[in-house]
Amino acid sequence: MASEQAVWTAEVRTDDADATRTLAARLGAGLQAGDLLVLSGELGAGKTTFTQGLGEGLGVRPGIISPTFVLVRIHPSLVGGPDLVHVDAYRLDSAGELEDIDLESTLATSVTVVEWGRGKVEQLSDSRLEVTLLRATGAHAGEDLVFDFDETGEADPRTIRIEAYGPRWAAVRPFGS
Amino acid sequence: MSAPLPTAPLVLGIESSCDETGVGIVRGTELLANAVSSSMEEHVRFGGVIPEIASRAHLDAFVPTLRSALDTAGVTLEEVDALAVTSGPGLSGALMVGVAAAKALALATGKPLYAINHLVAHVGVGVLDGGDLPENLGALLVSGGHTEILKVDALASDVTLLGATIDDAAGEAYDKVARLLGLGYPGGPVIDRIAKDGNPKAIRFPRGLTMPKFTGTAEAPGRHRYDFSFSGLKTAVARCVEQYRARGEEIPVADIAASFQEAVVDVVTSKAVLACREHGMSTLLLGGGVAANSRLRELLAARCASAGIALRVPRPGLCTDNGAMVAALAAQVVMAGGRPSGLRFAADSGQPVTAITL
Description:
The complex is a heterodimer of chains A (177) and B (358). By secondary structure, chain A is of the alpha/beta class. In chain A, helix 1 packs across helix 2 (47-58). Chain A is globular and about 50 Å long. Chain A is 20% helix and 25% strand. The longest helix of chain A has 13 residues, at 17-29. The two termini of chain A are 25 Å apart. Chain A has helices spanning 17-29, 47-58, 95-100, 104-107, and strands at residues 8-14, 36-40, 72-75, 83-88, 110-115, 128-135, 158-165. Chain B has 2 domains: 10-127 and 319-335, ATPase, nucleotide binding domain (Nucleotidyltransferase, domain 5), CATH 3.30.420.40; 135-313, ATPase, nucleotide binding domain (Nucleotidyltransferase, domain 5). Chain B contains 12 helices and 10 strands. The longest helix of chain B is centred in the C-terminal third of the chain and has 26 residues, at 253-278. The interface between A and B is large, with 37 and 48 residues.
């Protein structure tokens, strides 16, 4: 596993949360039962926003909110497709603790999206997409400190990197080179 | 000829939707016992509730908590008129323990069982502290898992959800910001305490879903007029912390905590008061664990007073999750002639507020 190579990688920039959601919806529309996505990014990077977009694309019941408190939320498909299983693995330390929440039982019939899942869920499937959301980080040395973070409607850009692993993605490439 | 409705039924209520195992006993609107056992300390290590730990803890705690409630109330199971249990919403594994225990008790004693909505029970508990709830009632529920505004037209039969969070619950935002500031779990009490030493105006953090495109007007309400969002606030706190780190400067934890808390409390209270005004609700009941937050109570009291809205806040032991609230709401259902739920219902982790009983 350690020497595993991505079959492809893609990097996309989005200007705001709506654009992130739209991009994820495009990806979600092409997902199938059994697909596994691992989302990485700091608190507030947009992992839940990205998952909301995936849900739109998949056509699951809307109202995707943070799974942090309950660890796992299942959003049933409204279009006869796979359900969306939305997981927050932040508080789970090991693969053993993840076993307790029994993702395997829903994996084959659902799209499974695991926030904070890197290094914990790879063994669930031979294929996966690793999605990393990067927010432009705070001020650089020399810039003035900011004290006003109010919603201004200004751009709030993200860089979204997608790395594909395993046979499922070898011939499937949702985003251009 | 139907029998007259009972006036003060003796009801035993069971709560296990999250990490508190609660058994409460009421006679009508009179509180007789409220025994609660919490698995919170076991969750501290993980920085939050772990459903499997909670489920096991409910199993261990159930019988002792039941015994303690019966002892305190000075009643026996045989004397109880009805049993009640939280059927949802909540963590499914945790709910199942309480539901299974309640069904077993109902089967063993032959008593009628009522499956009760957890969120509406947070409102129903109001009758135990301050007596009957008035007409034109609204409720603001704020806890680790919930942030909701309800319109309560009839406690036992007619409750509407006016607004809810679209991403993180308020209590969850406190936990995540505490994580960003290195303050540990749970975040609510520690941020409330540290905020007292900070300047709430030092940093202007966003008030989620308050822009006109989301709120609209009273006549043409926007999609999220009474909804909450705490995700952008959490991101703003992360950016704020980063800029100090990037410069190698000390992070002003107290000012950030105070400014964060002010942003949460400002938007929660202003949307609750707005909903009351626009839906003719003249009394607002505050419930849920975050009702213990000092700044939330202070600002909500001030804003309700200036809007002419009466505010009811049950005492803290009744605001956090407990069994008495389940018993209190079930007693209201019994007194209103509601039917028992039988033994065929299942726990529903997503039970909507419109399903007051199953």
